From TrEMBL:
InterPro entries: CoA-transferase_III, CoA-Trfase_fam_III, CoA-Trfase_III_dom3_sf, CoA-Trfase_III_dom_1_sf. It comes from the Bacteria. PANTHER family: BLR3030 PROTEIN, SUCCINYL-COA--D-CITRAMALATE COA-TRANSFERASE. GO terms for molecular function: transferase activity. The keyword Coiled coil does not apply. It comes from Amycolatopsis silviterrae. Keywords: Transferase. Coiled coil: none annotated. Pfam families: CoA_transf_3. The keyword Ribosomal protein does not apply. This is CoA transferase.
Amino acid sequence: MDAIDSQATQSTRAAHAGSESIAASLAETFGQDVGPVRIVGSDPLTPSVHRLGDASAAAIAAFGQQIAALAGKAPVTVHADAAIDQLRASFLTTINGQAAHRLADDPASLANNDFYATRDGRWIFLITTYPHQRDAVCRVLNCPPSAQRIAEAAAHWDAFALEDAVCAAGGVAAVVRSADEWRSLPAGRHSAAHPVVRIDRIGEAEPRSLPRGRQWPPLHGLRVVDLTHVIAGPVAAKLLAAFGADVLHVSRPDLPDPVAMIALTGGGKRNAYCDARDPGQAARLREVAAEADVFVNAYRGMAARGFAAHDLAAANPGIVTLEYHCWGADGPWAARGGFDQLACSATGFALEEAVEGRPSLPPTYLLNDYLAAYLGAAGTVAALRRRAVEGGSWRVRVDLARVCTWVQDLGSFTPEQVRSLPRPGAASIAEHTVRGPLGTLVEPVIPISFTGLPTPTPGAPALLGTSELQW
């Protein structure tokens, strides 16, 4: 970066709120006092116009502060370069020496996830990760599941018509919009009306203290149901498990995540099967939820089966629910599914990351999945702390699209200021090794230091369905 660019970057950085200030703002949203935090380093760290390192470091620090508050508010330290690495943890993890992200059940399904040009001069991101999503795209486009044939077929469609058709067919897709286009949509306005983490008291209950007081790790005795898949929800629950919680991950036997995903997100959890479409299995899940402290959910259909936050609170006063959605559980796009890449596409984030006129994902590839994980875990611990003092049942909500716009709202750099920076390469984050049923897993550590206290490491992941649906 030349001297002029360096001066411009310093000027832009000076106008931005520091990452420690961002963490302080999150603490205000959570409504609980926290101890001190130190964030080492700042953006720009990658060739991204967005503040990836600052946002990630602040979210990680916010979780660390909530955890530390349970054990005397030990000072917390986070390094921004390690926070960048956390965003790409799935690419830094190996299983028996093999890169985890290469161990897909169907490599083509992931490879076909991409931006496709449409005949009206726009772009759309299509997702084919799971079989039903692949089938929806291929039915609409009347083509086989190959990137070339999808591209050829998409070129005959207008972008918004294709988006509607894929979503109507049970798939997921998002047109690449500008930030202004997104924020002018009803879905965008609904999203912008809420903080990046929503914490609401939804019922009355007596205060329920956390089980182990100021012992470390501080979440021992806490029971967590993890009804999520892919990254954001599972990583949030994995963080709770790493700090001592008993986490029971629940999945439908005919809709499993790939083995690599279980390795990436399953550390320290038990895994049980449950098909909530079966009344008997749903009843058993309700019994488990009635004895839980936290219920994490990322499935849109569960409310219709009696597992909405208010239903859970009625059956178990004092429960904390953590919900993940892409577009919002009750907004205009509530019926649409979505993933990290789609949130980036719809909100203008991908357009702002464009390279030579083509929309692009950030240099870390993933963005709001890992950010959402730390934000949701922080909000959950904050709600548990509030429950211990105020009582009540609590609902915590994190939407991926809102995470994107939260990062956008932190300020940005110009392309000229960041274009000469190297893309993320060798990791600066430390690793830990754990051995279990899947073999030897080497993955990034939790990038938080607690003064005077050790940072725990997640346990080994378990295979799906190897535990009973019970505590």
